[in-house]
Amino acid sequence: MRRDLLLALALLATSGVVHAEDPSPEVAPRATVAVTAGVFDFTDDTFRAGELGGQYRGRGRWWVLHPTAGGMVTTEGAFNLYAGFGIDVPLGRRLLIRVSFAPGYYRQGGGKPLGQALQFRSSFEIAWRFNEGWRIGLEGYHLSNADLAAHNPGEGSLVVALTIPVGPRS
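The chain above was modelled as a monomer; its predicted structure follows.
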């Protein structure tokens, strides 16, 4: 899964589809904060839980890569803190896809055992951009320890993300 995500990122970055800037002034790249809510491990009835999260999404600092840092907590007391990078791929003026990857620290609490504290978060979001940089999106992500531990069940979450601009326009 991780290898597939990295390959997709490399293909997008070299295809000319990825743009460092959006030419429309209403949606100029800015640092943002995303507030998320949804379902942790939505495909497994045994460990399914509610989830709330937050994420800082910086402007493109490394070519088209945006630094990302965030965290989430579940209704079962599990939490994940992470830092990594994301790429926004505009599909026109309003629609965009965002992919991101971030290693992080996972604590099980009363939730799903994922094999170890080090987890890798791979995500895919499709979002609608509004004026002034606001956006609403649906994000799916996967947490996995990449087989670094003997036990690697992974989990998939599905969340709605409200993204709010916090930084100056570029």
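The longest helix spans residues 2-15.
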